[in-house]
Amino acid sequence: MTTDAIAVHPPHDGAAPDAATTLPRPAPRDTPEQRRSTLSLRRTDMFAVLGAAAASLSLTWLFFARIAPFTGGLGFVVCAYLLFLALYALLVSFDEDGPAVRDRIASAVVHSLAVLLLVALAFVVVYTLWSGRKALGHLNFFTQDMRKAGPLDPLTVGGIRHAVIGTLIEISVALVLTVPVGLLCAVFLNDVPGRYARLVRTVVEAMTALPSIVAGLFIYATAILALGIDKSGFAASLAISVMMLPIIIRASDVVLRLVPGTLREASYALGSPRWRTVWHVVLPTARSGLTTAVILGTARGIGETSPVLLTAGYGAGTNYDPSHNPMVSLPLAAFELVKSPQPAMIARGFGAAAVLLVLVLLLFVIARLIGGRGPGELTRRGTHRKVVASNRDLRRFTERHAARAAAGQDFGPAPEAAARPPEYLEHPEQGPEQGVDGS
């Protein structure tokens, strides 16, 4: 047998051995294998997009400026976009067949809609910040309320402290009311199936499209007119809770459905009751998604104006008591301030809207930091506590084994101390990121 062949011998089972089978070795490659590009965007696609865009802008300018008496920026954009799609389809058809052309056109439409939404969002944010830049540059805008400021006073007098405090109080009360109820309802919909659960899910899905003015009218009719509650922060929190509750329930329901059923089955197989399974298995597994559900509900409630307008009242001073007297929120303050014809009041209104945007962004960041870790992923402090507890258990087992060995009882070998790094055994007070010397 030559060295360029591989001998394969079948196993011997008592019969006569067969002849060895030889397989030729693969020929060595002179050049390395070239990797294929998996990118869906090619150079010809970029040329087609750029060429169609340039041609559509040129033709649209020609129609608007030289041929037809067209005017208006919106018409120019619409005509240019339609021409871009037609020219892009023509250029792609030179290299691709019919299904590929339709796929490229659909992709262009989807990407253009995404760009349009991003541009609209960026325009709203930039316009709000730019319009409120004059008010945001004054420190008193954040530390004073409007009790001593009039319509003709400059921006150096008055601020939105009362609106910021009112927003935080109202949304805190609303979260205290809605988060436990929303999570319990979502758990009920997933772990207690039945006809009543289907009815509740249908009602929740219908309430997600509830107009905000209807929620405000409902609380105004039931709490203020029927029960005699004054217009206050608590009444506004009730109206905000009506808007937040279906969002939290619906989003939490979707998240809890994603928890694998095998985790529940494993917990039930170990003898855990339903409440312990939900508390120790289901909710920790879906923690990040549940945090996102609370974020969505908070974002929906913190920007509501209509329910607060009907239930909270309006005042120029700071109110810390949500059960008495009117309490102003940032959306309501912005709504009332921009109605004034005075430039200073309009700047204060846009400043309040800018602060509301920043507040919502901070809430999103804090929520992501709290609930962004995946299930089973521990922090450094949590890992340190686990290491210290494991060392304590190992030390206890070793002492128990030594005591039994001294009493003449043999229960097998001592626990293996080598299962853990030696620096943890010698220095259990240190964390997993620290060495023996504390570095």
From TrEMBL:
The keyword Cytoplasm does not apply. The chain crosses the membrane at residues 46-64, 70-93, 105-130, 163-189, 209-229, 235-256, 350-371. Its main location: membrane. It is a multi-pass membrane protein. It comes from the Bacteria. Gene3D superfamilies: MetI-like. Residues 1-37, 399-439 are annotated as: Disordered. Residues 27-36 have a biased composition (Basic and acidic residues). Pfam families: BPD_transp_1 (PF00528). Residues 7-20, 413-422 have a biased composition (Low complexity). Keywords: Cell membrane, Membrane, Phosphate transport, Transmembrane, Transmembrane helix, Transport. Residues 164-367 form the ABC transmembrane type-1 domain. It is found in: Cell membrane. Belongs to the binding-protein-dependent transport system permease family. CysTW subfamily. Part of the binding-protein-dependent transport system for phosphate; probably responsible for the translocation of the substrate across the membrane. This is Phosphate transport system permease protein PstA.
